[in-house]
Amino acid sequence: MTRQERWQRTKSGGSTARGPRWPVFDQVRRETDVLLFDQRGTGLSDRQPPCPYIQRFDDAKPLDREAALAALRRTAARCIAHWREEGVDLAAYTTAESAADIEDLRRALGVPRISLWGMSYGTHLALASLRLHGAGIERAVLIGVLIGVEGPDDTLKLPLSADTVLADLAAVARDQGFEDLTGMPRRMLARLSQEPVVGRSVMHRGREVALGAYDAQLAIAAALGRRSTQQMLPLLLRDAEQGDYDLLATLVLAVREELGEFRAMPLAMDVASGHSPHRRATAEAQAKESLFGDALNFPSPMIGEGLGLVDLGDAFRAPLRSDVPALFVSGTLDGRTPPANAEVLVPGFSAATHLLVRGASHDDELWLGNPNIAAHVAGFLAGRPVIDAELEVPPPAMAQGKLDLLMQKLGVGRGTALVALGMLVIFGIVVMTLLMRWRRSHRFRVHVSGPP
């Protein structure tokens, strides 16, 4: 996962429950009390001063990996110095500290045990709570912000998981008229390695940006994670095959902008959770084989080196064993926290249940794509027996053109758009008919009222 997407996942409990996901929370709260927890540095618990230093990348130049990494390290170091001058204790923003906060909350509530419902980074926090304060936990649902499970040593992603998701998406795209989804990015990266190109982003008011191979690797790796960007990826690659890089430019500019900004809690938390030597060696070996190199993690793990931030150590990242009943939920099109994460964790739990959602990515369809998902979560938290199961959600509908893409972004389906277009045409005909009648009537009145 790119750093910017990893850091966006540290949402507060309150913000996670707002919007279209609220009905799921409403269903669960009919079974049991639900408390929405804003961990340190998020939501209403966010009291950190923003960093005034932002790394801007030159639109006229393609991104160079080594130069970008050096610039981001300098910016991160300046941000850390600024926060320390402002009195921010960065050692307070670790997953272990947040787990202690959950235990303090349980004690303040005066209850012997609580159940945890962790989402994406929240699963990482829930697993730390099980390790450090397991006696106070009754049950755990490990889903992710929208999907998947992040284990104690899963902060650093395995690069080949992106290639796997691309291959799975290729089968879906082929059924919708897009051939060779795996070959198109390979050919595009080969071209960009030889000569950068220029794209214009409509979403950025027509900004032009020079695009290189590493730009494309970062953008595509980020797009593979969520359905909203998966749906535009085949069109983006087909346009690039035809020499149109405008959609790629939109993604590249978004990635560049997110890369250049740092927040205290995500930076400190990410570095503290860290990675084991084995995990890093595995990730580096896979990066040599992956179509996307190390773009799935960039600029981690390198960004954390030499910043003087806390590392929780290998004991924090060691395999976890627990007798607490746990429901693991993962999706087959999740490029961020893939099902393999859950498959590794499940054997460490004596009472584990795995819910696999076929066709789900790291997006809202894990909540809303199948009503049985919420039913499983609610039933499990209520203490009813839940068994291993597989569910399906509809496959992503790939954008066939830029107008189609715009409709998807606006949340308008093709059928609805056609009806709206038909109504617009009918409305236009009616208006033109009335206008023509008015003009004829107006000309008649002028004629009869004129001089003889």
Order of helices and strands: HHHHHEHEHHEEHHHHHHHEHEHHEHH
Regions with little confidence, pLDDT below 50 for 5+ residues: 1-10, 145-149, 412-425, 444-452
- In helices, the fraction of residues equals 40-55%
Order of adjacent strands in the largest pleated sheet: 1-2-5-6-7
Radius of gyration: 25 Å
Mean pLDDT: 84
Overall, the morphology is: globular
Distance N to C terminus = 84 Å
Helix and strand composition category: alpha/beta
What's the multimeric state? single chain
Q: Strand-residue fraction?
A: 5-15%
Number of separate helices:
20
Characterize the biggest β-sheet: 5 strands, parallel
Number of E strands: 7
Report on this model:
This protein has 20 helices and 7 strands. It has helices spanning 3-8, 13-17, 22-29, 65-85, 95-109, 121-133, 160-174, 183-194, 213-223, 227-230, 233-241, 246-259, 264-273, 277-289, 314-317, 339-345, 365-368, 371-381, 402-409, 414-449; strands spanning 114-118, 137-142, 197-201, 207-211, 326-331, 352-358, 389-392. The strands form 2 sheets. Strands 1-2-5-6-7 form a 5-stranded parallel beta sheet, sandwiched between helices. A two-stranded antiparallel ribbon has the order 3-4. α16 (339-345) links the parallel β5 (326-331) and β6. The longest helix is centred in the C-terminal third of the chain and has 36 residues, at 414-449. The chain is globular and about 75 Å long. The protein starts with a helix and ends with a helix. The relative contact order is 0.15.
